[in-house]
Design goal:
Blueprint lengths: L9 E4 L22 E7 L3 H4 L2 H11 L3 E8 L5 H13 L4 E6 L1 H15 L26 E5 L12 E5 L4 E5 L8 E4 L9 H20 L5 H23 L4 H20 L5 H11 L5 H19 L3 H10 L9 H13 L17 H12 L12 H11 L2
Parallel strand pairs: 1-8, 2-3, 2-4, 4-5, 5-8
Antiparallel strand pairs: 6-7
Helix pairs in contact: 3-4, 5-6, 5-7, 5-9, 6-7, 8-9, 8-12, 9-11, 9-13, 10-11, 12-13
Amino acid sequence: MSFTFGVTTKALYGAGKLNELHNEINNPMGSIQGKKALIVISSGKSTRANGYLDRVQGELGQAGVEYVVFDKVSANPVKPVVEEGGRVAKENGCDFIVALGGGSVIDASKAIGLMATNEGDDLWKYVQFGTGGKVWPPVPSLPIVAVPTTAGTGSETDAGAVITNPETDEKTGVFGFGTMPVVAVIDPELMVSVPAWFKAYQGFDALFHSTEGFISKQRNEMSKMVAGEAIRNVSGNLVQAIAEPGNVEAMGKVAFGSYLSGIQMCVGSCTSAHPLEHALSAYHHDLPHGAGLIMISKAFYSFFIGKHVCDDRFIEMAQLMGRKDADKPEDFITALVELQEACGVADLKMSDYGITPEEFPKMVQNARDTLGVNFLNDPYQLSDEDCLKIYSESYR
């Protein structure tokens, strides 16, 4: 029953909640004070084309806030871009950040917030893993308002950011004081327009945050509770959210599951599946994180089932995913594969992204170097040979 719960983000959850954002800014009962904001969006067109940027600008206008737009964030945010974002925030005297987009935008905003308040232009000085300088940022980040337009990462309610350093081929976590968003506006109306394939990748990312937490050695009663509800909500509604793009209710339940998975990562933990995937996309930037997790998922979870280290947890997850009569751990794999098939993502291939088996040894080392702490959470400790086997069995 021992756990530490410190999720301080104020969540505005539900359809239409973006219309309430102005109440949170420069209001005695609100959470954010400031005269100028940096709005961070992706380098794509959807945020503008769907009118989301206009709506956020309108909310800031109602609160009497000026703004600058920074629109250079890619799907796997990289070190030079967040360093540039920090300079833009400094030069324009921004008081807080509005992260409008998917997990990549929210993650980038956390790193930008740290670079805007701390000395120097080198983010890697403040990275605690791999080749990072391991200096803890002495000054808190600029306050962050997270407005997710996807349901997947849970980044709107946790303190971590995942950033890639293209010079060292490292994809790892960035942390610092103040990186947990002050406010999160979780409005499923902003998520229904996401393309089906990307919605699936995001949904599985949210699912795996909690399936990893469910089998983690760090699991506790609090993380089990939120992870279980996340698994149930995501797995039970993702197919419908994809098949019926305008179904705000189904999308909202997936978004709720993603939000809970973010909390799970704060009160519980992820396992080695995440660094194993990060190593794939650290070398192949076009690989979406969720897609990489899907690729390795069957082999990853089958490994632990083969060791029979937590059979009861796999059975319970299978039941949460709709197989009420599940009575063996393999039923979880059946439920997982069926969900991937129903979402049209069961046949993803590493080779389509240029990944080759010859890269696997360096990827195993990369995963351990950049986020080795996650391996300690596994219910059975993976050897390098075990990791290579998971990669090899996942390869197509």
